[in-house]
Amino acid sequence: MSIQQNFPAISPSLSLNFARSKTLDPRITFTRTTSGTRTNEIGLVEVVPANSPRFDHSYDPVSGTVRSLGLLVEEQRTNLVTDNTTDFNYSINNQSIATANDVAPDGNTVLCKHDLTGASEPFLNCNVGATLTPGTYTMSMWLKGTTSFSASFAFVGGNEIYSNTANITTTWQRFTLTFTLINTRNNSRLQVFFGTQGENKVISIWGAQLESGAFATSYIPRPVAGQQATRNPDNVSMVGENFSSWYNQSEGTLFASIRNQTVRSSLSYDAFVSIAGTDKDRNVMRIYTQTAPGGGAPYAFFGAVAYSPDGSTVLNHIDTYTSNIQNIGKAALAYKKNDYAFTSHGAIPNTTSSGEVPTCNQLLIFGRSRFQLEPSGHIAQLTYYPRRLTNSQLQNLTK
Description:
With 399 residues, the chain is mainly beta. The chain has helices at 3-6, 18-21, 241-244, 391-397; strands at 14-17, 29-31, 36-39, 45-48, 54-59, 66-73, 77-79, 98-103, 109-115, 123-127, 135-145, 149-157, 160-168, 173-181, 189-193, 202-212, 229-231, 235-239, 251-260, 268-276, 284-291, 299-307, 312-318, 328-336, 340-344, 350-352, 362-365, 377-385.
């Protein structure tokens, strides 16, 4: 088979390269009723206004490399920390410490630097302020030192203490800790410990966050001290003529390049791209990810197709690719009456030779699945071909 035959000869009728263009196609309906944050093109945390898309980036503090990740879509989360907006600006074991301004990860100069020199058993506190019920939580914060050293950051709620080690360097890094709270807790705290002596350590701390969930989402600033702050979900869709202008009901191929941010605490399925009918849990073709039992990586992409009116399954395939959630995953789902195929990461496609094509009228990006879960992550690229591509073409698309 020639190289040309291995790649689509037909042009896509929909081509959205969010990572490259960093723009939103005008046919897309996008809403988020609160502001949100992203990492911008120069590696700074930046507030984005309500109802504006966030084209996010990863930042390597060691090399200074910034990488475009595409469109960031997240579920609703609340920063449960209600303490002072300067975070950890407190005394250590009743000892007075020197504090100073530093340039924070958002580029602003704020009071966030703490001199621990000579302090006995130093630790810094940040009060949560909210009553926490049993469940899974994730805390996060940015840390930086004037020198490199190790510290511990922890959640402390009564006799429940969960901690992890932070290898602090001279550049800002965001550290996270996920834990499961057993009992209801009041007056809990986020803390950073530094051993028995301060040992001439100077540390900057910024962006304390505690959220209900098994993974950290983007920073949710607290504009008012003493109050929690909520970021509402991102909603992304194409409907009406904006959808029908490129969609072929009889056959087609959907390709997506996705970075999954979601980590569940149990086996779950997260819908990332769906072509759906009015009842999106029945007439639907969907690319989504599966979290491994027990939560965390590895995960696998798989596609499922259900047709109305009973929602019975036409195709449900799980691939064998496993990956850390930080990686970009590529998947393709092709459909035609009695001729379906799904693959990811260049694997031999799974096929099904029976089944009607669902009647669809909308595209949902990271829409809520039939399991009532809202995934979070980045979509780098979304391409649709109005033909059922060959299995070889599907493999090459997803390599």
